[in-house]
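Q: Can I borrow your eye for a moment on a structure tokenisation matter? Would you mind producing a protein record, from residues through to fold? Write it directly below this note and I will take it from there.
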Amino acid sequence: MTDTPAPLPKVAPGVRAAMAAHIEAALACLDSIPDPVDREVTARALADDLLPEAARRVKSVRGEAVVELRENMKLREVAELLGLSVPRVDQLAKGK
């Protein structure tokens, strides 16, 4: 199951902008490396080490948020609130 491709209107614009700025700063850091070997090695480190770790942390945050919501809500209610399917919410709650 995948998440709904619809945009998330509930994301606070300031928070989204701040996260986008941090990502852009990391990419600008890559662009600023003059030596192509250093630039490639650093880009590889970003792609192979840092981004997968960030993805794991994001997945964990999502799962924890769903588990927290599930303390007081049914799966269907959480799914409707988040704009996700019931099976996807169940997967997130199970850390999948």
